[in-house]
Amino acid sequence: MTQGNRTVKPDCSRIEIISVHVPKTGGTTFKKVLKQVYQDEEIFFDYPHKGPIRNKLLTSDRSLTRVIHGHFPGNKYDYKYPHARKIIWLRNPINRLISHYFFWKSWQVLTFPQETIEEDELARVVEFAERPEVRNILAANFLQNQSLTDFYFVGIQEFFREDLVQLEQCLKWPNFELEDKNKNPYPEYQLLLKKLLESSEIISKIGELNREDREIYREALSLREERINKLNLGNNIWINNGKTQIVEKNSLENNRKIIEPLISWGSIDRIVIQNQVLGLSGWVASWKSGPVEGLKVVIGDREYTFFEKLLCIPSPDV
Fold first, then answer.
1. Which of 150, 196, 210, 223 has its CB 3.0 to 4.6 Å from that of 93, i.e. a possible disulfide?
2. Which residue ranges form the domains of the chain, and what is each CATH number?
3. pLDDT over 60 (residue 81)
4. Which long-range contacts (CB under 8 A, 24 or more apart) does 109-117 make?
């Protein structure tokens, strides 16, 4: 294998982790975790915008490096570091593309002051989604001809905290503090996201444009379920002041507190099944009990946990 004018040979160095950062999937938050687990000199960030500095580092001897993280194809370092554990985080392709658009748009507004926030921003999202360079970005740019089974760990952004604890358990990492996930900087992003998700026509269009990535995402969810079953060793995830821990189930049982349900009011306003995805929209409130932080979805006797919540949306009419 050649790189420029140099021959790159397999390297059995200290490289432990190859972390592929797909845009808008939690990669920035994961980078902050890596910086707590490893020393600065042990991490090499491979991002295209680093230009000449990045190219120099790629061809230089980096004997202290243990982790490589950045935007690059999943097979980029396979030949040079064949024994490294590869990690990738994925996200529902429809939500990922919407977030990608508003992140891109926020930079347009900052970089070009004359750029304004369009009134018909929802239509602009569809135009953005139709661009060839942003369609099926996971399959085309990051996986290419690879399979998800070629990765040591495939995390899901919608279950970032839970999956991160599982990864910590697998790699025997020390405890770390997990900051809130990186928030999209675009003004009124949450409100516009809600409107987009309520438009079955737009969601269907974006989904059709990203059919390959949706198939990969469904496979990732299946792999996650298999992983959870394998890791179910009688332990539970416990979050203590932002620090992740694995606690024995017996310990939790002995210290379990009985939580009384709150009296609440609510309504399910809309139920939509689109592209094999069940969408529920509505509201819930509880008197003098603060904001809602979670909810359960139970259909018949089955409780569903694989769903994404969109909370704290402005509701002036409620």
1. 210
2. 2-126+143-178+215-250 (3.40.50), 261-304 (no CATH)
3. yes
4. 117/187
